[in-house]
Amino acid sequence: MSETFNLYLFKSEKQLTPFLQKEKKEGKKIGFVPTMGALHRGHISLIDKAKTECDIVVCSIFVNPTQFNNAKDLEKYPRPIEHDMEMLLAAGCTVLYLPSSNEIYPEGKPLLKEYDLGYFDKVLEAAFRPGHFQGVANVVFRLLKKVESDILYLGRKDFQQIQVIRKMIEIEKIPILIESCEIVREASGLAMSSRNVRLSEDAWHNASVISQTLFFLVEKRNEFNSIKTLRTEGIKRLKAIPDSILEYLEVCDEETLRPIEIFIEGKPSVILTAIWVDGVRLIDNVLIS
User: Fold this and answer.
1) Pairing mode, if any, of strands 8-10 and 30-35?
2) Are 206 and 244 spatial neighbours (Cβ–Cβ below 8 Å)?
3) How confident is the model at residue 2 (pLDDT cuts 50, 70, 90)?
4) Relative to the CA of 41, which of 58, 75, 187, 189 has its CA 20 to 30 Å away?
5) DSSP readout, 70-133?
């Protein structure tokens, strides 16, 4: 027999807080999945994970204007809210929190807190998207204060973002556990992303080379005489993708995101990349444990 689920929809903290406080008083554990909508199986995998560990699962959908460097990118960001609600209902999510911009930024966007994110705010994504992580840190802090969950579920595709959020949580001393969850991929290996819908059929096929390259580098890493030559090979393969612009390909320490020169047994590392394909910016990464 199939399960029947209810999805509670709240658009304000005034509606959300009493509901969650009642559940907490009954001893229920709350899991939180923050999203910008345009949901796909990657997002739903976070909902599924949260359901196994929590009694109540809250998903927020808020397209955060403060983390977009490009106004056109913000404008183009897909917002299929009815489809998203259908997916959340089918997945058995408990609550959809759907705030307005005024709900999140009642004092206006300019009054953002400046977080000292250190090295994480200087390299990789931060180097190509200045101010992006300040926007991320601010919006996640505001959402966490409203939802007050026990566990925060984040997808590992946004690897650097997870480190930024960890840093913000440390600064703000928020008592919450972070669960970073596996990247969900298309059959071709392409990392699932809300931006993928903007790829043409040819570009979709070409973009599969991104993950193929990353997995090749992990598999063959011991056959190269240095990380420098490994990286050079990866850059060559990615630059060969038609209609592409490579921003970076780096091999870094998993925890600090500082570039490494050698692989050390027992010290996890990560290969990260960002590349434009057919005018769509895509990111991906693979861990080396």
Assistant:
1) unpaired
2) yes
3) low
4) 75
5) -HHHHHHS---HHHHHHHHHHHT--EEE---HHHH-TT-TT-------GGGGTSTHHHHSTTHH
Residues 33, 43 contacting (CB under 8 angstroms): yes
Write the pLDDT tens digit of every residue in 177-219.
Answer: 999 999 999 999 999 999 999 999 999 999 999 999 999 999 9
Angle at the Cα of 149 from the Cα atoms of 143 and 154, rounded to 5 degrees = 70
**Spatial CB neighbours of 155, under 8 Å, sequence gap ≥ 6:** 42, 43, 45, 46, 180, 181, 183, 184
120, pLDDT greater than 70? yes
- Concatenating the DSSP letter of every residue in 215-273 gives HHHHHTGGGSSSHHHHHHHHHHHHHTSTTEEEEEEEEEETTT--B-SS--TT--EEEEE
Dist. CA 69–CA 51, nearest whole Å: 34
Amino acid at 74: L
The single residue of 43, 83, 132, 205 carrying the catalytic annotation is: 43
Known catalytic residue at 40: no
Q: Cα 162 from chain centroid? A: 7
Q: Which helix (H) or strand (E) holds 176?
A: none
- Distance between the two ends of the chain, CA-based, in angstroms? 41
**Residue 192's closest CA among 55, 50, 45, 62?**
45
Q: In whole angstroms, what is the distance from residue 185 CA to residue 28 CA? A: 32
Asked if 162 contacts 180 with a C-beta cutoff of 8 angstroms, the reply is: yes
Question: How many whole angstroms separate alpha carbon 182 and alpha carbon 48?
Answer: 12
Nearest to 20 by CA among 2, 33, 38, 32: 32
**pLDDT-based confidence at 110, cuts 50/70/90?**
low
| Domains of the chain by start residue, with CATH | 8-181 (3.40.50.620), 194-288 (3.30.1300.10)
Alpha-carbon distance 285 to 173, whole Å?
A: 29
